[in-house]
Design a protein that fits this description.
LysR_subst-bd, D-Maltodextrin-Binding Protein, domain 2, single chain, WH-like_DNA-bd_sf, LysR family transcriptional regulator, hydrogen peroxide-inducible genes activator, 11 helices, nine-stranded mixed beta sheet, 3 domains, two-stranded antiparallel sheet, alpha/beta, DNA-binding transcription factor activity, Arc Repressor Mutant, subunit A, DNA binding, 13 strands
Length: 313
C-alpha cells in the first residue's frame, strides 16, 4: 500500500469517475485503474462498485476511504512542518466564497494579501454554502468564507466580523420616508429576495420572522435572481424593497445611498467566518488570510460585538 494508491482511491471517491479522477491526478486512466486493482488485491476486498454509474464505493470501501483521507492529511503535515520553518509563505490557497460576500469582501483584502505574500497563489471560487462545505470535506478547498453558524461537526468556524443588514427601498415606497425600519414593518409581498439555495434568502426571511414561501409575484414581474446587484437594480427601476448586507452598500454613490435605511436597534446582523475542515492544514497561510481580512474591514464593522445586536441564524 502506498500514498499514491491512497491518493488515487480518494480521487475516484471525490469525482466518482475513473477518467476524471485520473485527469485530476495527472495520470492515465489505465495507470490509475491498475494501481487501484493492486490495492484491492493487497487488501482482499472490492473498494468500488464499478457496475454503477457514477461509480460508488462499497460499504467496506467507504470505511477504507475515510481512513485514507486521514492518512493523507497526516502525511501532508510533514510538508507543513517544513513550510512553517520558512520565513516566507508560499504555495496554493484554495478559497470558497459565497456570492453575497465575494464581490464586496474579496476586493478589500486580495491586493494587500498578495503584495505581502507574493509567493502565494490564491485560487478563489464563488460557491454556495453547501458546495463549500462539501469541497472542504473532500479536500478540494482549503478554507471557506461564509456565514455561520453551520452546526456541522466536521467544520471548524473562525468568526471574523458581524455585518449588519440594511434595507434598500424604492423612493416611492411609504417606508422610504422613515429614518429607520423595524423588521415587523416588512411585507414579503413587497420584498425582493434571492433564489432558494442562498443562505442570505433564509436570513432575510428570518428577519421577517416568517418561514413561509415567497411567491416572487410583484405586479406583472416575476423575477428570480441569484445576484444582489440585480435586486438593487430592480428596486431602483421598479418598486418595493430588498435587504442587503452592509459591505454591499459601502461604495454606493450618493444618489443611491439615499435609498438605504438602517434597521432600528438592535440591528439584525450576520456572522461572517472563515471555515475549515476540523483536520485543516496550511495553518500559517490561513492565519495570514485571517489577519489581512480583518485589517481590510472598516473599523465600525471590525469592532462590532455579537452581544450588541441580534444575530440572524
Amino acid at each position: 500500500m502506498t500514498l499514491v494508491q491512497l491518493e488515487y482511491l480518494v480521487a475516484v471517491d471525490t469525482h466518482r469517475h475513473f477518467a476524471t479522477a485520473a485527469e485530476h491526478c495527472f495520470v492515465t486512466q489505465p495507470t490509475l485503474s491498475m494501481q487501484l486493482q493492486k490495492l484491492e488485491e493487497e487488501l482482499g476486498v472490492q473498494l468500488f462498485d464499478r457496475s454503477r454509474v457514477p461509480v460508488r464505493p462499497t460499504e467496506i470501501g467507504k470505511e477504507i476511504i475515510a481512513q485514507a483521507r486521514v492518512v493523507l492529511a497526516e502525511s501532508k503535515k510533514i510538508q507543513e512542518i517544513v513550510q512553517n520553518q520558512k520565513q516566507e509563505l508560499s504555495g496554493e490557497l484554495r478559497i470558497g466564497v459565497i456570492p453575497t460576500l465575494a464581490p464586496y469582501l474579496i476586493p478589500l483584502f486580495v491586493t494587500g494579501f498578495l503584495e505581502k505574500h507574493p509567493h502565494v497563489q490564491l485560487v478563489v471560487q464563488e460557491l454556495l454554502t453547501d458546495q463549500i462545505v462539501e469541497k472542504l470535506n473532500h479536500e478540494q478547498l482549503d478554507v471557506g468564507l461564509l456565514v455561520t453558524p453551520l452546526s456541522n461537526k466536521s467544520i471548524k468556524e473562525l468568526p471574523l466580523f458581524y455585518e449588519a443588514f440594511v434595507t434598500y427601498i424604492n423612493p416611492a415606497h411609504p417606508l422610504a420616508k422613515q429614518e429607520a425600519i423595524s423588521p415587523n414593518q416588512l411585507d414579503l409581498d413587497e420584498l425582493w429576495v434571492l433564489n432558494e439555495g442562498h443562505c442570505f434568502r433564509s436570513q432575510v426571511l428570518n428577519i421577517c420572522n416568517r418561514a413561509g414561501t415567497v411567491s416572487g409575484q410583484k405586479g406583472h414581474l416575476d423575477y428570480k435572481s441569484g445576484s444582489l446587484e440585480t435586486l438593487k437594480r430592480i428596486v431602483e427601476t421598479q418598486h418595493g424593497l430588498t435587504l442587503l448586507p452592509e459591505l454591499s452598500v459601502l461604495e454606493l454613490p450618493n444618489e443611491k445611498r439615499r435609498l438605504i435605511r438602517p434597521f432600528e436597534e438592535p440591528q439584525p446582523l450576520r456572522e461572517v467566518s472563515l471555515v475549515v475542515h476540523r483536520s485543516f492544514l496550511k495553518k500559517k497561510l490561513i492565519q495570514a488570510l485571517q489577519q489581512e481580512i480583518m485589517a481590510s474591514i472598516p473599523e465600525e464593522i471590525r469592532n462590532r460585538k455579537k452581544e450588541q445586536v441580534i444575530a440572524v441564524k
